Backbone:
């Protein structure tokens, strides 16, 4: 059946693809990514949708409309280094990516967004891919065979992000396309750069409470019921849960969530959470 068949909340630490992972570090995350990739391969979706909090922000919701994306991880280096302390800045290896875009679907989504009053913007020229997009794409689409729809997120009303996700899901269904939707993101975000596998203790408690909530059978109620004060306690990264709001909107009512893995990556709570629509 056309539409969103599967979704993931997935982390995007660039060290997961940059060849810097030490033996025994982040094995849970790597294993879960591989399991997710195997499931995506079995599904053979027509499209992969990736919403990234690190696509350079503009006042608009950006929609990737380029016919193809090629490049290397190091092209996005200046943006990555901006967020790092001086002693932790480094050169990155030229990890390559190459996959087709979806200009026709992007154009449909632009029209649908405009008709609903959303501030959408079609990006027809490819830019250097950010790590929020690149990491899940390299794991879930390693051969670059699945055409990818790139999306930015906005910080604002959670209901607005949910509605934008609903529009995305409906346009995929109308186009007769199946898709896997990836909300690229993490939970608690308290960097501990000197400890690759560290978890911020307060953040770990917040994360586990959040994950317990979304896996108890009331996924949407748990996520959308969080107050601004509760979210602030988790010290989430820029963009917060808005990628997840979009994913849940695209999936429709009563999605089922399960946690595939959870561990710390330099202090950041980094789960891989699987979502499927109600059957």
Residues:
């Amino acid at each position: 059946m056309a539409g969103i068949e599967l979704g993931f909340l997935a982390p995007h630490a660039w060290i997961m693809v940059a060849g810097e992972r030490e033996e025994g570090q982040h094995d849970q995350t790597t294993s879960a990514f591989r399991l997710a990739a195997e499931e995506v391969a079995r599904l053979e979706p027509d499209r992969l949708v990736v919403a990234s909090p690190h696509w350079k922000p503009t006042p608009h919701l950006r929609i990737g409309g380029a016919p193809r994306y090629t490049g290397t991880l190091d092209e996005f280096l200046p943006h990555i280094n901006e967020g790092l302390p001086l002693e932790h800045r480094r050169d990155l290896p030229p990890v390559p990516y190459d996959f087709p875009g979806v200009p026709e679907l992007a154009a449909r989504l632009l029209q649908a967004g405009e008709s609903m009053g959303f501030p959408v913007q079609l990006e027809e020229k490819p830019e250097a891919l950010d790590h929020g997009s690149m990491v899940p794409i390299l794991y879930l689409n390693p051969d670059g065979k699945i055409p990818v729809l790139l999306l930015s997120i906005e910080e604002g009303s959670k209901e607005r992000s949910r509605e934008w996700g609903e529009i995305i899901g409906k346009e995929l269904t109308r186009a007769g396309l199946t898709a896997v939707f990836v909300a690229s993101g993490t939970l608690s975000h308290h960097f501990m750069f000197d400890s690759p596998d560290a978890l911020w203790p307060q953040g770990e408690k917040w994360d586990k409470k959040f994950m317990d909530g979304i896996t108890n059978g009331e996924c949407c109620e748990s996520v959308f019921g969080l107050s601004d004060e509760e979210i602030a306690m988790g010290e989430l990264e820029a963009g917060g849960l808005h990628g997840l709001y979009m994913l849940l909107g695209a999936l429709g009512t009563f999605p089922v969530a399960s946690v595939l893995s959870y561990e710390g990556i330099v202090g950041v709570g980094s789960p891989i959470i699987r979502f499927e629509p109600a059957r």
About this structure: The longest helix spans residues 27-43. The chain has a mean pLDDT of 88. The chain has one domain: 3-276. The beta strands are 3-10, 47-52, 61-64, 68-72, 96-100, 120-123, 148-152, 178-184, 256-265, 268-276.
